[in-house]
Amino acid sequence: MIAAVVLAAGAASRYGSPKQRLFLPDVLARLAESPVDEIVVVEGAHSLDGLDLGNARLAPCAGWAAGPGASLRCGLAALGPDVEAAVIVLADGPDLDPRAVARVLEHRGDGDVVVASYDGTRDHPTVLDRSVWAQIPDVGARGLQAVLVACDDLRPPGDIDTPELATERARST
Asked: What does the DSSP assignment read for 22-61?
């Protein structure tokens, strides 16, 4: 079984408001088109109550302020014992391409940590084999050595950290 963990626990301080409420629906819609069996959304600084999560379920993370590693560990802990690998994506990456998820999953056998890259830059989605879940550092999965899978022909998922980036995205779509 393959699960997706959506990191949506951050304070969104640079954005100035709970951006996960804005971008999470797009991320979940794209994940629904990908080859994952289950979706878990890590909730922290801001409540996601009332937001349509489709078939996804929430994983509250009381320790979210400790950083991305803590949030990721909360999401992974919420997965059942039958989950072999987890696809990690960000709630503020609304342009996630389901084909990128499929592509990194196709390369699961290449390593315990497999990451999409765009023009040689490590990005998302990331696939973590269960064997590395206990090794998640405080900086999150980016602190783990990874096999990069070229997704240069696909649009990167985005990382909307400021309202200016959201405006830029709106202009380009």
From this structure: HHHHHHHHHHHTSS-SEEEEEE-SS--TTS--TT-EEEE-
